[in-house]
Amino acid sequence: MYENNVSIEICRHHTKGQRVCYCREWEIDLMMWQVKVQREQVEAVVGVILRIPSLVLAELWFRTSPEKLTNQPDDVTFIITVIYYLSLFFALALAALPLKNLVYLYIYTLSAGLVCFNWYMSHLFVNTELTQESESPMFLTDSSETQRVLLHLLTQCITSAFICYLLEITNWTRFVFLAFVLPILAKIMGMPSDVISGVHNFSTIFTILLVAFTVFNNLSYTFETVRVLLRKLSEAVTEFGWIPVILASWNTLHVGIQLLIFWIYMFISHIYVFIKVGNSVIIQEGFSMIFLAVVGECCATPISLLALSVTVSYFSYFILTFTKIFLQGWRGYMNDNDTFRGWTEGGTMLLIAFQTGLTDLKPIQRTFLMSILLFIVVSSLIESMYEVADPILLSLSAAHNRNIFKHFRAVLLFTFLWMFPLYMTYSICQYFTLDFWLLVIISSGILTTFQALGSLMVYSLFIYDSLRENSWEKLDDVIYYTRATVRVFEFLVALFVVCFGLKETLVGHWSLINSAILIVHCYFNVYKRLETGWKTFLLRREAVSRVESLPQATEEQLNSLSDVCPICFSTMTQAKVTTCNHFFHATCLRKWLYVKDTCPMCHKKIEVKKNEDNQTGIVVENNYVHNLMERDDELSEESDMSESDTESDASTEILEEDNDQIIDNVEAERAALQTIQNNDA
User: Fold this and answer.
1) Which structural domain range is residue 119 located in?
2) Residues 223, 263 share a domain
3) Helix (H, G, I), strand (E, B) or coil at 433
4) What percentage of the chain's residues is helix, strand, coil (to nearest 5)?
5) Domain end (from 467, 501, 531)
6) In degrees rounded to 5, what are phi and psi of residue 616?
7) 259 and 233, same structural domain?
């Protein structure tokens, strides 16, 4: 007994220790995962920071050109041209290298910069010695001269030590970086100025040879790295294609974040420069004109234009996400986080800017064109906000949500959506003369205003229906006519734009671009709207005809059914009977038939039969009536067969009684059939 208790206790301790071990292993795994996530985030941040200078170099490369140099010797022009194109390759290396190779590149670049700094300090020291009148050593007699020499010596030593630390040099070769200490030692030893200058020249030549040797020694490694990267790129393109590789590289290198930070930095720097030495005429126009001028200056090259488009995309994403959070809270954002939201506005900006040749215009022209581009982008953003908010507004009203703050926020947002486009239209018409192009641009904002007002009206109808004690049967019709009215206004706006364009084409100045835009606008905004509206009207009329053709359920049928409507799950006091003998509310069935022409339960097609006068009649070939007629024929045949069958007296009597009952049922069903047909007629 004692041994059993000991074994049980040992098992308990073993199980407990095993659980503790599992918990510790889980905690260790969790900590390792957190460390891995933090490391990936840190690497991403470091990669973004280290690659932003490539965008700055590319921007400077586009803004400058060796051809602008004048009154320069040919050798100087050649050197500047070589440096000009090498800077582009250096920018490409900063943008495309993996993070490990990128860090090495920065280390070597920083080391080269420090070597140049040592040369510059030595050059200043030698020039100071050459400008002195007396060549006698004053190192020990003059305290200021002693401090200057010691400061140069200390600077050279610290810089050389830091270079060795960056390059991880620990052997005797680290002393070669002290080459620019030799002129200082010559000064301490009391040598004349010309000798000190010769020592400086020797140190310069020695350092150049050292750098050249290092470059040629690592040239094979550089070529091998480039070859491996190109081979991997070729394999990825062969297997996946160019577009997936570009998208994967965009996400892996976080190019969007790089462009965003680069453009914000450039925008802030241009604002500072503009305020310091800006145009006083533009400054007097106010903040809006300053903003347009700075934004126009920040898109003068393809790199800055791409950065502006990405910035617009991120700004639009932030606005649309904030719209969703404003209406539904943080939970709504977590349930539906569309990462591609907002890129339509950025793509629109980039496309229109390239079509209009924005980068080739003068600064004042870019300023005025930027106002048009920003109006188009903001109009597109307002429309995207409406597309995000419209389903949320209608769901609040249709679901009878009682949260008054959600309703207030939704109504407030839609008030902004229909008022702000009108304000933008009024503002832009103050600066530009109304023509066909301007009318095409402002028409999108006007259409958004009509759509927002229509949504508010539909929302008000749903709210009114929720406040009623009984359901409003005409609600669907009123909503349809409300939306149809909004569509009519949209069609009239599009038609007005077409008529204005035709007038300007026939009376004013004709151009091929205006005619092409007019044709496209006429097809998409006039013809397609008219076609869609007409199809919707025909579908609705067909659905109404189908519902009206179905027989009305009697009170006895509803009592025997004792069920709810399969669509809305509400009690049926009145119902329509389909051809497949299913019962629905007439309003619910009509809404269903707007989308499909089949039964919601069995998906059998609900047809409308037309009479001889080509007028839509009442459906009399539904399954309920067919069942009555087929059962009538079958029972008649059975009654005839039962009358002729006299083999057994007992069976004959039973059959006669059954036949009498069957005949009575047939007569009753015939009477019911005749009543339904008379009512339908």
Assistant:
1) 60-237
2) no
3) coil
4) 80, 0, 20
5) 467
6) -70, 120
7) no
CA dist 401 and 416 (Å) reads 22
- 579 inside domain: no
Does the residue 600 lie in any domain? no
Q: Looking at the structure, do residues 143 and 226 belong to the same domain, yes or no?
A: yes
**pLDDT tens per residue, range 35-77:** 555 777 888 888 899 999 999 999 999 888 877 766 667 777 7
Mean pLDDT value across residues 614-618 = 37
Same domain, 213 and 270: no
What ranges in 298-403 are assigned the alpha helix state H? 302-335, 343-356, 363-398
What distance in Å separates the CA atoms of residue 627 and residue 576, rounded to the nearest whole number? 17
**In which residue are the tokens 């809006």 written?**
288
> So what's the pLDDT on residue 77?
78
Residue 357 and residue 219 in one domain: no
What distance in Å separates the CA atoms of residue 580 and residue 601, rounded to the nearest whole number?
Answer: 9
State residue 69's pLDDT score: 66
Q: How far apart are CA 415 and CA 541, in angstroms?
A: 33
Residue linked to tokens 């949500």: 401
467, 501, 527 - which closes a domain? 467
* DSSP string across 628-657: HHHHHHHHHHHHHHHHH--S-HHHHHHHHH
Residue at 438 is within a domain: yes
Please tell me the distance from the alpha carbon of residue 494 to that of residue 487, in angstroms, as a whole number: 11
Same domain for 188 and 121, yes or no, is yes
Contacts 24+ apart (CB under 8 A), 208-214: 210/176, 210/179, 211/112, 211/115
Q: Which residue has the tokens 């004042």?
A: 364
Contact 366, 449 (CB under 8 A): no
Find the catalytic residue in 298, 299, 565, 588. Answer: 565
Residue 664 has a pLDDT of 55
Q: Mark whether 568 is an active-site residue.
A: no
**Cβ-Cβ contacts under 8 Å for 289 (sequence gap 6 or more):** 282, 367
Round to whole Å and give the CA distance between 601 and 608.
18
Please tell me the pTM assigned to this model.
0.71
Contact 399, 459 (CB under 8 A): no
| C-beta of residue 261 within 8 angstroms of C-beta of residue 48 | yes
Query: Distance between the two ends of the chain, CA-based, in angstroms?
Result: 96
CA distance 151 to 155: 6
Q: How many domains are there within the chain? A: 3
Let me know whether 230 and 267 are in one domain. Answer: no
> How many Cβ atoms sit within 10 Å of the Cβ of residue 116?
12
Q: Are residues 337 and 212 in the same domain?
A: no
Residue 40 belongs to some domain of the structure: no
Instruction: Provide CB contacts within 8 A for 146, sequence distance 6+.
Output: 139, 140
The rounded distance, in Å, linking the Cα atoms of 517 and 525 is 11
- What are the strands, taking DSSP E only, across 526-624? 576-577, 583-584
Structural tokens at position 326: 């404003």
Q: Which residues pair with 571 in a beta bridge?
A: 564
